[in-house]
């Protein structure tokens, strides 16, 4: 693998999921692979799971890791070509990406959507800037458009917990006090379209995601109806895509409750975390036996590890 920007960068998803599950049996089996190789983690936004699980994955492969909170500690970067840099941005991505490439063998980048200007977010200038000017492989740790490491961990989790060959998987929107990005939902949708699943998206009217991503996915505006016979309920808030970055609905009637989970086929509850208790999901659902969010977060290590392994094998 050269870079990991989208799920489409993985050649054989099914085989990759199986390889990731295999790694769990002996996580340090390939400890020699990353010897004398350095992974640089660049964060333009906060992180708990992504930061620690990606470090853990690198450690399991014998890599050294350097972490930089670019958003708070780095120079503000400029991305426009030919611009006169007399405003607040101090350093151009051209230099920054080439310089970091000299210190790191692989660079991983997190830069969320800003949710102000759709066209600008769609350009995904941070990750694409590194892709363009760095001389080493790039890994996406959530860009404006996608969070493929999360989606890979989600697919691993569904593979481990499914009782049916073709489970019903429901992606449900839920309320949130802040406007959140579309990245997690986008990548989950892309992933589910590649899986053997009866996949349904449910959200209030106005929360339709990019139709180039949802494609022909089934959208059910009645959440109760969508939940019927579901084997997995994957919950995520996102802000509106058409009315870009807007919050259209805040009332609690879309929150995931035990009453709603009772409509399902004893479904497992999933969320990428962090999750707002009693806003997105009621305590008793999150604390129930059916909640698999902790196992899901554990799989972030193995999703990162299988991606790093494939990248390292390619640069050896
Ligand atoms: C991020 C998102 O893209 O939705 C990261 C998820 C992995 N989530 C948040 O920003 C939640 C922040 C909050 O205040 O609840």
Task: Describe what this molecule looks like in 3D.
- The strands form three sheets. This protein has a five-stranded parallel beta sheet with strand order 9-8-7-10-11. Strands 2-1-5-6 form a four-stranded parallel beta sheet, with helices on both faces. A two-stranded parallel sheet has the order 3-4.
- Strand 7 (168-172), helix 8 (183-192) and strand 8 form a beta-alpha-beta unit.
- It folds into two domains: 7-146 and 300-315, Rossmann fold (3-Layer(aba) Sandwich), CATH 3.40.50; 150-296, Rossmann fold.
- Helices cover 38% and strands 14% of the residues.
- The chain is of the alpha/beta class and 316 residues long.
- Bound molecules: N-(3-carboxypropanoyl)-L-norvaline (SN0).
- Residues 178, 180-181, 183-184, 272, 274, 276 line the site of N-(3-carboxypropanoyl)-L-norvaline.
- N-(3-carboxypropanoyl)-L-norvaline is lined by residues 178, 180-181, 183-184, 272, 274, 276.
